[in-house]
Amino acid sequence: MPEPSEAREGRLRAWARDRLGWDELAHMAAKKRVPVHRYTLFYYLGGMALFLFLVQVATGILLLLYYRPSAAEAFESVQYVMADVPFGWLMRSIHSWGANLFVAVVFAHLISVFFLKAYRAPREVTWVTGAILLFLALGFGFSGYLLPWNTLAFFATKVGTDVPAQIPGIGHLLSRILRGGSDVTGATLSRFYGIHVAILPAITTLMLGAHLLLVQRHGMSVPRSVEGKTRRSIPFVPDFLMRDMVGWLAAVGILAALAAFFPWELGVKADPFASAPAGIRPEWYFLWMFQGLKYLPSKIFGIPGETLGVLFFGALGAALVAVPWLDRRGRRGIAVAAVAVLTAAAILTVLALLPVPGAEKP
Amino acid sequence: MRSRLVVLALLGLAAPCARAQAPAKPPAAINGCVDCHLALDDPRISPPAKLFADDVHAKAGFTCVFCHGGDARQEYQEDAHDPKKGFIGKPKPQQIPELCGKCHSDAALMKQYDPSQRVDQLTEYRTSGHGKALAKGDTTVAECASCHGAHGIQPVKDSRSPVSATKVAETCNHCHGNAALMAAHELPSDPYEKWSRSVHYRARVEKADLSAPTCNSCHGNHGAAPPQVGSVVNVCGTCHVTFADQFKLSPHWEPFKDMGLPGCVTCHENHEIVKPSEAFLAEGEQSKCSSCHEAGSAGARAAAEMRADLVGLDGEIRRAERLVDRAEEAGMEVSKVRFDLVAASNALTRARSEVHLFRPSAMHGAVAEGLAVARKAAAGGEARLKERDFRQRGLFVSLGLILLSIVALVVVIRERDRRSSPHPED
Predict the structure, then answer these.
(1) For A47-51, A237-241, B166-170, B419-423, which range has the lowest pLDDT when averaged over its residues?
(2) Gyration radius of chain A's alpha carbons
């Protein structure tokens, strides 16, 4: 005869099984396994990106309780969060540092997936959703940068929203749509706020859902070089998850240390009538484009250099999304595959080299 | 080509209309003087003709004969330089003010060229040290051309003019820095040198603040003369309004007048006006009070009391600033505390200003207010430093807990790895 507590647990389990499909979920979790080989370490990057995204969601919601999205009050509300709200400084610093760490991990995840060729069939759509998630992460970074309404962010956004204006034909319209007018004003702030807290999260939720669903559907990709050589795997729950948690705890520690020792600066309130200060620049992950546009001559074959630059970055983005198909063609012609790899390598080189002179020139 | 011809034709039609609408030009627009003087290529004769091309008067249509007389239409020198036609050659220094005043004192004429231009320069000049000396026959003093130049004269607002805002001090110094010339007039030759060490020079030249005083701000320009002893406070008061008002209410005002002391200059000097400091109120080398008030006298005690108040407030503000700076360097949000610091500094400025009332009780209010705000700012700085310490302690506790959790997880992982054999893939 079962103990009363066991009987109660059984009743609860039955209740959950009937209503939530608990058993199926438990079965699915138990079935999911992660292959063990010399590249297993890279599997943790996806989980780390997801964890940091959730940290951003949690801290973002807390900041939302105090933030006021208007040119008159935005700066002061962030100042209030930093100075007067209990642990407000911690939430804002973790949100700001976390954003940078999140983008860095997303980049690392994408680069590892690219070099391990994890986008191979049947995972092309997983790659596409991942590439879109990278663009969304950059969008979060760009829209969030303006929200404290400080001088640096204001002028960097002016430069940043000028970039789409270089697109022939629809550029100026795009720039106007982004800014909510011809210049960066309080209307831009309201717009960026809406984009940052509603539009991007909604699209990200859908994309992330699709991405995770596809990862679940196809399982973990095993790199070709170790395909067939490994027969070992560990259960996702709890073995891989526990290893994931080690990384997540370390990330929390790093974020807390950064927040305590280097609280994210607020700077000076934006003054739209002041002249642009020296040293305006975007976040580090946009620096390579920012610096690249600066190096371009004013005209290339009679076409404005910046227009060509923006079109080139657009083409790079499109190529990134199309990597699985570019590589497929490469199987037939090795040169095309090499172009795909070289393009990725060029991005890495530019990423490594360009931010330094940009950062040195205040 | 065809369109160019049309434009030229239209310009040709428009030109007579433009001439008809222009204000009446002065007569004798023909300036044959320049043709000859340039052709002679004599270092004494041709430079004025060259300079005159860029002269404000030449641009307004005036020619050489307006100042030098003669007839510019004549081909030969003796006809052009005919004294019967008013030729005076190079005007003598005594003639120059009247010569310039002929037009510049004529309100109706000046209105045609520059309606905002003053027409009292000659009247003012006659009241100046220069004008009075010239009237007595001293031709070493400045007349119009000494400062404005003779040919190639530019409007005062033009930076090329020797009397423009940025050049007037150097222009005055041409003569007033000449030791031999000044000795002959029993005047010092170091006013420029002293001024260049003053706060006014620093503001004007180093900070490019053109509202800061230069020679003519205090001495006047056309009526240039040293301010009289009794008018020094008024002259300084044109800018330092509050100080002048306070000084006139102070116990020093009447005695200074009775003793013939030149107000502000008594403590601050005239040209070498340095940044005032609390040391002015103390005994010692920089002391200003001790030159009149003996040690232990009521005046010396009052000065010491005022100094103690100012030094105390200044020290409290500096202490608060150090704390706030440290908190800011640690990344703490200090904008509100900085606001208090600004209020404290404003109170110190007010207290320093109230020194000019020369009554310790008069500055007590500002000092007490400043001390209260400075202490509040210091407390704010201390609180933020404590908060920083709390954060760092909290961080170490959190990191400890995180590390413990990681260790526990690693132990569990290893234990599970040890117990479970490698699972072959299906």
Answers:
(1) B419-423
(2) 23
Phi first, then psi: give them for residue B424, nearest 5 degrees: -70, 145
pLDDT band for position A5 (50/70/90)? Answer: low
**A82 reaches B (C-beta below 8 A):** yes
Distance in Å from the first CA to the final CA of chain A: 77
How far is B385 from chain A, CA to nearest CA, in Å?
Answer: 12
> How far is CA A296 from its chain centroid?
27
Q: What is the number of CB-based contacts under 8 A between chain A and chain B?
A: 70
Instruction: Check if A32 contacts B (Cβ < 8 Å).
Output: no
How many residues are given for chain B? 426
**Contact: B425, A257; criterion CB under 8 Å:** no
A249 touches chain B (CB under 8 A): yes
Query: Positive or negative, the Cα torsion across A279, A281, A284, A290?
Result: negative
Over residues B39-73, the pLDDT tens digits come to: 887 888 888 888 998 999 999 889 898 899 999 88
The Cα B177–Cα B219 span in angstroms is 16
pTM of model > 0.90: no
What's the structural domain count of chain A?
A: 1
Residue A86 CA to residue A339 CA, distance in Å, equals: 52
Q: How many CB atoms are located within 10 Å of the residue B258 CB?
A: 8
What is the extent of the structural domain holding A169?
34-225+233-277
Residue A126, domain member (yes or no): yes
Tell me the chain B residues in contact with residue A33 when contact means C-beta distances shorter than 8 Å.
Answer: 423, 425
Element (H, E) at B423: strand B423-424
Cross-chain residue pair B335–A231, CB shorter than 8 Å = no
Strands (DSSP E) along chain A, which ranges? 33-35, 232-235, 299-300, 303-304
CATH number at residue A120: 1.20.810.10
pLDDT of residue B30: 64
* Coil, strand or helix at A302: coil
Asked whether residue A332 is domain-assigned, the answer is no
Q: How many whole angstroms separate alpha carbon A200 and alpha carbon B148? A: 69
Interface of B with A (CB under 8 A): 331-333, 335-336, 391-392, 394-395, 398-399, 402-403, 405-406, 409-410, 412-413, 416-417, 422-425
Half-sphere exposure of B240 (CA within 13 A, CB side): 21
ipTM score assigned to the predicted complex:
0.83
| Chain B residues in contact with A90 (beta carbon < 8 A) | 391
